[in-house]
Amino acid sequence: MGDFRTGDHPPSPTEVLQWFNTRAQNSLKPLSTDTLDFFRALQQYLKSEEEGKEEVTLQLLLNVSAQCGVYFPCPSSSPALHPHLPGSSVHSVHMVKDDSAVEIQEAWDPVRLRLRRFLMDRLSCRTSGPPGSPQLSTITILERVNCFKQLFFLYPECEVVTGYQGLKQKYVLSILHSSMSSSPGGESGFDRLTTGFCNVVQHVTQALTEELQVLSRVVEPEVVLGFLNVAYFGAITQEMTSQMEREFETAQRDNTALSGKTKKYSVMSRATVG
Q1: Which of 35, 39, 57, 186 could be cross-linked to 107 through a Cys-Cys bond (beta carbons 3.0 to 4.6 Å apart)?
Q2: Which of 223, 229, 246, 216 is nearest to 172 (CA)?
Q3: What predicted TM-score, i.e. pTM, was given to this entire model?
Q4: What is the dihedral of CA 110, 112, 117, 122, to 10 degrees?
């Protein structure tokens, strides 16, 4: 197989595996040109309308890596971070001695970015229901674990965790803001905040349980704790502080206005009596 320029579809997994095995065994031929064609073919395929293209691409890349010992470019990472690849048989598509390394990275980045968005979207999908009902993940714990493993294949762990942390922080802030901004029972002031916080506890508890079940299987405990501190506890503290500051300001304005009205009424009363 000379190259990967096959139109809208990448070559079959069997063809790709055979090609990488052949090229890996022949160290005299550079990988750069054919690798560029391979990544560009994947780019075109991911732009197509074919259903399930992201899953197909991910499985293809994982098979090539596991069966052919090919290490795909991953900045801030190294083959040592891929224990499933035998050290003596790792063939990095980035191991070239000229500027083609930059071209390969530029061709690879759009592919892994598209796949990262797909996986992050899967991790972010939650059920919809009536207000106040818990929003559960639409995929199982094992499916979420697998999503993280695939993300770690594409990007360094720290980048994946940081990106996911940002998504979850926005989610926590959104449900807190939504719950505390509404008042189905007609409460106001600090009573509204208290009721809103109590209503959101079930959401947060369910989400925390899911996070612990997933993250404990893919990252170290200290990473899990750091993630929870920022995405959940920090987000809750931030939103509660903001809401309470606004209520204090409102209460102070109301007290000032009430005090002014009281003084004015007192002066008018004395003038009337006099």
Answers
A1: 39
A2: 229
A3: 0.74
A4: 150
User: What's the total number of domains in the chain?
Assistant: 2
Phi and psi angles of residue 178, each rounded to the nearest 5 degrees, phi first: -65, -45
**How far, in Å, CA of 77 to CA of 245, rounded?**
44
150 close to 89: Cβ distance less than 8 angstroms: no
93 and 38 both lie in a single domain = yes
Verify that 77 and 206 share a domain, yes or no. Answer: no
What is the rounded distance in angstroms from the CA atom of residue 147 to the CA atom of residue 141?
Answer: 10
How long is the chain? Answer: 274
- Sign of the CA dihedral running 197, 199, 201, 203: negative
Locate all alpha helices (DSSP H) within the chain, ordered by sequence: 13-25, 32-46, 53-68, 100-124, 141-154, 157-181, 189-215, 221-228, 235-273
pLDDT in tens, 149-189: 999 999 999 999 999 999 999 988 888 888 777 666 666 67
Final residue before a domain boundary, out of 83, 98, 124: 124
Which structure tokens are listed for 129? Answer: 């229901």
Distance (Å, whole) CA 57 – CA 60:
5
Biggest CA pair distance of the chain:
110
Identity of the residue numbered 158: C
Query: Residues 224-243, buried b or exposed e (16+ Cβ, 10 A)?
Result: beebbebbbeebbeebeeeb
- How far is it, in rounded angstroms, from Cα 85 to Cα 65? 8
Residue 92 dihedral angles phi and psi, to the nearest 5°: -80, 130
Residue 12 belongs to domain spanning:
1-124
Contacts for 88-97: CB closer than 8 Å, 24+ residues apart: 89/24, 91/20, 91/23, 91/24, 91/31, 93/31, 93/35, 95/31, 96/30, 96/31, 96/32
Is residue 142 classed as helix, strand or coil in its secondary structure?
Answer: helix
